[in-house]
TrEMBL record:
PANTHER family reported for this sequence: MALONATE-SEMIALDEHYDE DEHYDROGENASE
Classification via NCBIfam families: MMSDH (TIGR01722)
Gene that this sequence comes from: mmsA
Keywords of the record: NAD, Oxidoreductase
Broad enzyme group: oxidoreductase
The organism of origin for this protein: Embleya hyalina
Annotated Aldehyde dehydrogenase domain residues: 14-480
EC number from the UniProt entry: 1.2.1.27
Protein name: methylmalonate-semialdehyde dehydrogenase (CoA acylating)
Molecular-function annotations in GO: methylmalonate-semialdehyde dehydrogenase (acylating, NAD) activity
Pfam families reported for this sequence: Aldedh
Length: 500
């Protein structure tokens, strides 16, 4: 029995027949476990017309009603998180505890959006001019689209849709075709939470669906997360069609380790941030910049921890790291490991020979944790986002050299500094050209009431995800200048209004 995943439109599974479909795999076994429909232009249009109709009602639903539905959704999500985590594990491959972690980080944004009556408040100035009050209101955009990547099938859509829905928009989610079932599970929860039909819709598919979303005149904004080339494409084309776009791209995150840092803690952090979710995190650390003379000692500690990591199926509670998402992606990561060797880096731990636990895992998409030393900035293992469990160590002689390396990198998503020197950390936070900074924190994903976003090639657009930026992105402002007439206001005056 395989699972058939189709679009979710108007609070129900779509009943049509798609002309194109893709396979869904279990990355731990390599087996095909289902198929997913790929939307045509007509299928996208059907979802959008439902979202347009639903917008007319939802934009006028009271703040109290909207936040009540969000509270219901939050309760359902929390109650069903284990079931949802199992779905994520089966299609993405990450370990169950990590899947629970991404649900928790998404739930944070739902919780933030429960407070929408407060978040969406405008300003009010009484008596801005004599007898005149000025105030601002923020209104929803209309149907909005979210296009998400494979690596966080629950969390990344939840960076956006709780706030989009709370602010009165209707949503079309186009999830990754690699792990599509999570989106439908979340859609079912919205239905149970009492969200009116057509407010949250899911369209599955590939470039055909994305291109139709970008050009569709009734879609007012696009929130995209994925690789940098596609993020740039989505930004350029979405804005060309007059949409508001925030497009979050790829990353190469550096961890700068100063000689005074506690190397035991640094080694733990490097292993957690380098190999958690098999390195398939946009905030994973993939480049460790060691300020000499600590590199030898630190590498020894990291190596010792890596060899003990238990790699296996995500549904085995003993596993600490799972497989990569597809055979094609695993092959790409393996080709980078070979390129690192060929280009002269020192292969300290070879993930190709790491033992894999579990019975049914022979055909899975495995690459074990891999460590390179003596990596230089021209090598492809450094220049490219590998998005796998490959950690590169670059040796530098000073803080300034380390900073220059990080600032020369075209990506600017996250970075971390490890040190016990507060002054150095403060200098780093001021000088580094990256959007999210960790000080002795390896994966500094901001909490929901701040906003998530990188700099340079890691984000195209202005507003970051969730937090105050999220509310700003999903609403547009109006400013009202009001006067209630009385006889003293009469008379002709052709001058420009002044503030008397
Ligand atoms: P991807 O760019 O391949 O796909 C992202 C989305 O775009 C998917 O929905 C996919 O169907 C669609 N897509 C793919 N190719 C397309 C094309 N040619 N035209 C139009 N649409 C297309 O990314 P992925 O492999 O799913 O995810 C991994 C990438 O996402 C990594 O680069 C990672 O760094 C990045 N990411 C970034 C962040 C961030 O916050 N900056 C967060 C998570 C993931």
């Amino acid at each position: 029995m395989t699972n058939h995943v189709t679009h979710w439109i108007a609070n129900a599974e779509w009943t049509g027949t798609s002309e194109r479909r893709g396979d869904i795999h279990n990355p731990a076994t390599g087996k095909v476990t289902g198929t997913v429909d790929f939307a045509s232009v007509a299928e996208v249009d059907e979802a959008v017309s439902v979202a347009v109709r639903a917008f007319a009602g939802w934009r006028n639903a009271s703040l109290a009603k909207r936040s009540q539905v969000l509270f219901n959704f939050r309760e359902l999500l929390n109650a069903k998180k284990d079931e949802l985590a199992a779905i994520i594990v089966a299609e993405h491959g990450k370990v169950h505890s990590d899947a629970l972690g991404e649900i928790a980080r998404g739930q944070e944004v739902v919780e933030l959006a429960c407070g929408i009556p407060h978040l969406q408040k405008g300003g009010h100035s009484e008596q801005a001019s004599t007898g005149i009050d000025v105030y601002s209101i923020r209104q929803p955009l209309g149907p909005v689209a979210i296009i998400s990547p494979f690596n966080f099938p629950a969390m990344v859509p939840m960076w956006f849709f709780p706030i989009a829905i709370a602010t009165g928009n209707t949503v079309i989610l186009k999830p990754s075709e690699k792990d599509p079932s999570t989106a439908n599970f979340l859609a079912e929860l919205w239905k149970q939470a009492g969200l009116p039909e057509g407010v949250f819709n899911v369209v599955h598919g590939d470039k055909v669906a994305v291109d139709r979303i970008l050009e569709h005149p009734d879609i007012k904004s696009v929130s995209f997360v994925g690789s940098t080339p596609i993020a740039k494409y989505v930004y350029e084309n979405g804005t060309r069609y007059g949409k508001r776009v925030q497009a979050l791209g790829g990353a190469k995150n550096h961890m700068l380790v100063l000689p005074d840092a506690d190397l035991e803690l640094v080694a733990d952090a490097a292993v957690n941030a380098g190999f958690g979710a098999a390195g398939e995190r946009c905030m994973a650390i993939s480049a460790l910049v060691a300020v000499e003379p600590i590199a030898d000692e630190l590498i020894g500690k990291i190596k010792e921890r890596m060899t003990k990591l238990r790699v296996g199926a995500g549904n085995d509670a003993a596993s600490e790291m799972g497989p990569l998402v597809t055979r094609q992606h695993a092959d790409k990561v393996l080709s980078y490991v070979q390129a690192g060797v060929d280009q002269g880096a020192t292969l300290v731990v070879d993930g190709r020979t790491h033992p894999i636990n579990g019975d049914d895992t022979a055909e899975g998409y495995w690459v074990g944790p891999t460590l390179f030393d003596n990596v230089t900035p021209e090598m492809s293992i450094y220049t490219d986002e590998i998005f796998g469990p490959v950690l590169s160590v670059l040796r530098v002689d000073s803080y300034d050299q380390g900073l220059a390396l990080i600032n020369a990198n075209p990506y600017g998503n996250g970075t971390a500094i490890f040190t016990n020197d507060g002054g150095a950390a403060r200098k780093f936070q001021n000088e580094v050209e990256v959007g999210m900074i960790g000080i002795n924190v390896p994966i500094p994903v901001p909490v929901a009431y701040y906003s998530f976003g990188g700099w340079k090639n890691s984000l195209f657009g202005d507003l970051h995800a969730y937090g105050a930026d999220g509310v700003q992105f999903f609403t547009r402002g109006k400013v009202v200048t009001q006067r209630w007439l009385d006889p003293s206001h009469g008379g002709i005056n052709l001058g420009f209004p002044t503030n008397d």
